[in-house]
């Protein structure tokens, strides 16, 4: 594809991230037109299609096969990512799949094999933190070597509430997956073992869900990473990180807010959700994807092999949730 407008279809357009990407692709991303939408909720799909001038499709297969669609965006629920990605590859159409690429290692491996058989790189995975300006600055500092080698990283991942049906495994595949990919990218090496530890449960956790949890992960060179994962933090949404290096530290800043002093109190507002924290990252990653499809950007974004590696690490972390022990990561296809 050479510098033409890309016609995109969105699968899962009615969900929260689907609607965010629909607005983004139609209002802020250059070189793309959203021409087709599908969601399991047909009434919502019809309303969105009417509002955005797209066609409401009767099925996933119809959207992928449409000659009005050059490329596919998948924002449906995690469990169908693999199936839909494989259908897009089979149709020879580039696909942007939100994370995770799949929820099991076996399904991710199958995507890699099908893409390799197609003879083209067709998949980009929605690991958007690679495109966040603050994370990119951290990456540049680490790569410069000015602080010496990284030794440890401390992280928090707090979400005020989560939808019904959220499971312990999803704490890894849907939440921790961001830290898994970001550290593969930031440190330039694999995460080779990990452990998930349960804490005292918050009163807001649904039955059967351990929340919060603590993830411990080690890289090939033994950098130790700890991540506090909470999906019922109640008070707000916060993503934090500090990397400890030989000659100093790097701290991820929280979003800047005015600090207000008033009668006997001082404070600032805390954001409520991921869409408020990472709008620029999502803009950058989708613009990069479209630019790559148009032949403007030569470098591809994170692909199926990145999705597979992240899934291998996630599998080890999920195994640790049951065993309580440190689990080694198996990267075998």
UniProtKB/TrEMBL annotation:
Residues 7-127 form the Gfo/Idh/MocA-like oxidoreductase N-terminal domain. Gene3D superfamilies: Dihydrodipicolinate Reductase, domain 2, NAD(P)-binding Rossmann-like Domain. Residues 135-251 form the GFO/IDH/MocA-like oxidoreductase domain. Pfam families: GFO_IDH_MocA, GFO_IDH_MocA_C3. PANTHER family: INOSITOL 2-DEHYDROGENASE, PTHR43593. This is Inositol 2-dehydrogenase.
């Amino acid at each position: 594809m050479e510098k033409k407008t890309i016609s995109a279809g969105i699968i899962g357009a009615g969900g929260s991230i689907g609607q965010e990407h629909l607005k983004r692709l139609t209002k802020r991303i250059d070189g793309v037109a959203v021409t087709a939408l599908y969601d399991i909720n047909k009434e919502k799909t019809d309303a969105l299609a009417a509002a955005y001038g797209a066609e409401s499709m009767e099925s996933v297969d119809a959207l992928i096969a449409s000659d009005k669609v050059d490329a596919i965006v998948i924002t449906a629920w995690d469990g169908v990512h693999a199936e839909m990605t494989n259908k897009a590859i089979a149709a020879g159409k580039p696909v942007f799949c939100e994370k995770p690429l799949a929820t099991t290692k076996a399904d991710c491996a199958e995507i890699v094999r099908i893409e390799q058989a197609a003879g083209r790189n067709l998949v980009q995975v929605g690991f958007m933190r690679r495109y966040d300006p603050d994370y990119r600055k951290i990456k540049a500092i680490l790569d410069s070597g000015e602080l010496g080698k990284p030794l440890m990283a401390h992280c928090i991942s707090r979400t005020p509430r989560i939808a019904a049906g959220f499971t312990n495994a999803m704490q890894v595949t849907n939440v921790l997956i961001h830290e898994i990919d970001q550290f593969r990218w930031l440190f330039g090496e694999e995460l080779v073992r990990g452990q998930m530890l349960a804490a005292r449960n918050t009163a807001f956790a649904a039955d059967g869900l351990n929340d919060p949890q603590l993830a411990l992960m080690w890289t090939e060179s033994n950098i130790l990473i700890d991540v506090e994962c909470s999906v019922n933090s109640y008070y707000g949404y916060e993503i934090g990180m500090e990397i400890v290096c030989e000659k100093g530290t790097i701290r991820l800043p929280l979003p800047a807010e005015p600090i207000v002093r008033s009668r006997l109190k001082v404070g600032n507002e805390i954001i409520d959700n991921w869409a408020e924290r990472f709008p620029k990252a999502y803009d950058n990653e989708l613009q990069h994807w479209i630019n790559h499809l148009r032949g403007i950007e030569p470098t591809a974004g994170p692909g199926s092999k990145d999705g597979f590696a992240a899934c291998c690490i996630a599998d080890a972390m999920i195994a640790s949730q049951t065993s309580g022990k440190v689990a080694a990561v198996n990267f075998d296809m």
